[in-house]
Amino acid sequence: MNLNSKVIAQLIQSVNAEERDYLNTCEKQIKEQYKTHFVRIFSTLSRKLSLSTKEKLIQMQVSDSENLIIEDWTVLRLARVYLLSLIQDEEESYVQFINQLFDYADMQELVALYSALNVLDYPSRWIERCKEGIRNNIGLVQEAIIEQNKFPSEHLNEEAWNQMVLKSFFTSKNVLKIAGLFERNNPNLATAIVDYIYERHSAKRNIHPILWLLAKNNLPERALSILSEQFHNCSDSLEGSILFYILEENNVKSVEKEQLTSLNQELALIPFSEDLLERFKNRNVCVQI
User: Fold this and answer.
1) Residue 57 forms beta bridges with which residues?
2) Considering only 174-178, 241-245, 273-277, which range has the smallest mean pLDDT?
3) Which of 34, 76, 100, 226 is least crowded, fewest Cβ atoms below 10 Å from its Cβ?
């Protein structure tokens, strides 16, 4: 699947003239005979780009990158995804070749491969690879799938999706960077989250505020009691504002806003909005310890 022209233009603008010529040569060789040239090009690309180029960070508007979410990608990562997008072949030959790349890739190459899931041809053939990557214990590889990647939300079934979301909390990922997090929220996930909340509360461990947000329509009395306790003990305005919103949504024991606010007089509450969630996401603070 060819990349959006705006993505290619952004890549070309991020390299110098010599590197641009090299990428053009690579494109021709891959299109002519990818089986002969691709592995060499893919594995040696790090040495062909200068240090200042390959570590440069790129981010694009989602509307410009379409099927990719390019946020703080290195040029090297984007260049590898671009090269992968150039491969074209019949399904079985294509799938066999890409699988071999996965099998022998180093960590940085795996990051690029998983980042490219949504631009690889024959998407249904990569669902198991996606699940395998989520099970992977390498943090950077997990992040390439879980954070800012549209493939899981578009192709995983509900069970696999729910497992991925829960694992993102277990492994302290930036959960608000999960594409489709709220769009694919579901009652089974909420039920599992409530059980997880109980486990963390019993173990006297912090409870991520986004857990409450995902389960807000399925909170029994025991969970609401824990939520009230967490809000009462909260000292962070962003987290407290999210908790307060969920308390209000659940009309906890019909408590009036003034009474709830009095539980934590020192907390400066912020109206719940997408901006509030964006601020919380960008802060990227682990609260799962």
Assistant:
1) 74
2) 273-277
3) 100
